[in-house]
Design brief:
The protein is of the alpha/beta class.
């Protein structure tokens, strides 16, 4: 018995050694995958953002009222943002087109639906070879009479920073788009329509670079029409307004008129515009698929559109 035990021990020891090596390699690979998926995070402003007070409440997750759900999954809601950041998600190198899109999550200018309308969108963009850049802009609003002023400052600065650092970030400075949902759709729309009117004083060389997006995607954008249900006067497009894609549902309680009125004015101005209006879908679905709701498959239309407008020039 003793001899048999001695003959088996080396085999058992080798097996244990082999399994230890396998576990080590797997751990290294998993760490590498996690690291590869981690975004590069850069500050939008070199110091405090314009108009920010010395002290501000700490960023926090909104949990009041229990977990919010979309398509059967929880969503992460963030508020009290006073230090805007850009989280840069790059596609696999072999699939990288060089194009990028700055993403503005919605949240009524009170909070940010950071995963539903932010990180999940960046992952989708990565799947089609586009760098997704999630903008964590300031919320809640600082100016009740102009709710998205701080957010507009943040997105204008973000576009200039990304363009100024494009070479360093491995991006094409002539293919930087903006995409927004709901209140973030207003932010993206204003970036698209008001790029000539920078809403803050220049602070460094990045602000010498244009803040005009090269293309724009507005997904159920909000707050673009006034009480008379016409496009706000300051949002009228001009001949150099970037080409735009809009997605909306006819039964959206926040009103599809934001998209309809903007598309009408773009037609008058001769701007290339693609509008997809679906009968049902409501509001706030992000890009999560819901059976029986064709509007939630809008990424298919957007992918086809992006393959044309964001292709290498």
């Amino acid at each position: 018995m003793h001899t048999t035990h001695m003959n088996r021990s080396p085999s058992l020891a080798l097996l244990r050694h082999f399994l230890a090596i396998v576990c080590f390699v797997c751990a290294v690979c998993i760490d590498a995958l996690v690291f590869a998926s981690d975004p590069q995070v850069i500050a939008v402003w070199p110091g405090k953002a314009p108009g920010e007070a010395a002290e501000a409440p700490a960023e926090s997750e909104v949990t009041e009222g229990g977990p919010k759900m979309v398509a059967g999954k929880k969503i992460y809601l963030l508020t009290n943002v006073s230090k805007p950041e850009l989280a840069i998600y790059k596609p696999e190198p072999a699939n990288d087109t060089g194009a990028s899109v700055i993403i503005c999550p919605g949240g009524g200018h009170r909070l940010l639906a950071y995963d539903l309308e932010g990180t999940e969108v960046a992952q989708w963009l990565n799947s089609i070879g586009i760098t997704g850049i999630v903008l964590k802009y300031r919320v809640p609003t600082r100016t009740p009479d102009f709710k998205c002023l701080a957010a507009l400052q943040d997105v204008q600065r973000a576009i200039s920073v990304v363009r100024a650092r494009a070479k360093e970030l491995g991006l094409d400075a002539s293919r930087i788009g903006v995409l927004g949902f709901s209140a973030g759709g207003e932010v993206a729309a204003r970036a698209t329509l008001q790029f000539k009117d920078r809403k803050y004083e220049a602070i460094d060389s990045s602000d010498e670079v244009s803040c005009r997006p090269d293309f724009s995607l507005l997904i159920y954008p909000a707050y673009l029409v006034g009480k008379d249900n016409t496009l706000l006067e300051e949002l009228k497009p001009t001949a150099d307004t970037p080409q735009t894609l809009m997605i909306h549902a006819w039964d959206d309680p926040v009103t599809p008129l934001s998209s309809l009125c903007l598309a009408t004015e773009m037609k008058k101005a001769g701007i290339s515009c693609e509008l997809h209006m679906f009968a049902r879908g409501g509001h706030g679905y992000g890009l999560r698929h819901v059976d029986g709701m064709p509007v939630t498959d809008w990424p298919a239309q957007a992918s086809a559109w992006l393959s044309k407008v964001a292709s290498k020039k």
